Amino acid sequence: MSQDDDPYRTPGQPPQPWQHVPGQQPSAGQPSPGMPYAGQPYAGQPSDLERAPRPPAVVRLGQVMLAGAVVAVLQGVHAAVAADDLLAGAAADLDEAATTSGLDPASFADLAGDVFLGVVLVVTVVTAGLWLLFARLFDRGSGRVVGTVLAALNGVTLVSGLLAPTDLLEWLLSAVMAALVVAGLVLLWRPASSAWFRAAAAGRPDLTW
Fold it and tell me: What DSSP assignment string belongs to 189-207?
């Protein structure tokens, strides 16, 4: 075969450094025939377009996690707005505690209000942050067992909120949050999700990102 018959170059064009001329050994630093060039994936290595997409259950799971973070913020805002009513309902207990401690009842009530708002802020930030954190972990194929345990613990709190709500809005928010927890658990352990999580844990190259 002549050089003009080389299928790797245009007839009449001199061979390029990356092309192999039949009958000639590759020079040092020149890739052998069949060897991928720089930036070219090896055989069997998936490109970005070939990577397996997340199953619909995992996509919806991420949406449920984001919705849970939003509802957690709404619960915190509601608790902060209802703080005055809650403290007014406990005014007698606060006055008794202030008298027992030798403190001014008005100052003690203000302190109790500040502490309550601080607790609400911390709980809201932590709860919404956990929803967002597990949205990220689930999207990367991890955190399923820990997320299930925390969802079960959160379910206990939701039951108490449903059984003894302070008003209708709190009951509705607790009901929505409970529905999101149940939906998240169902999506988390569906067969398609389980297969995808197992593949991600096994380090499948088509599931890396």
Answer: TSHHHHHHHHHHHTT-GGG
Which of 79, 203, 19, 63 shows the shortest CA–CA distance to 3?
19
Query: Domain residue spans in the chain?
Result: 70-80+117-200
Averaged pLDDT of the chain:
76
Query: How far is residue 194's CA from residue 209's CA, in Å, rounded to a whole number?
Result: 19
Phi and psi at 104, nearest 5°, equal -70, 125
Q: Determine the straight-line distance between the first and last CA of the chain, rounded to whole angstroms.
A: 45
Average pLDDT over residues 181-202: 92
Alpha carbon 15 to its chain's center: 52
- Which one-letter amino acid corresponds to residue 85? D
Name the percent of the chain lying above pLDDT 70: 63
Q: If you search the block for the tokens 């597990």, which residue do you land on?
A: 134
The reply to whether the predicted model has a pTM over 0.85 is no
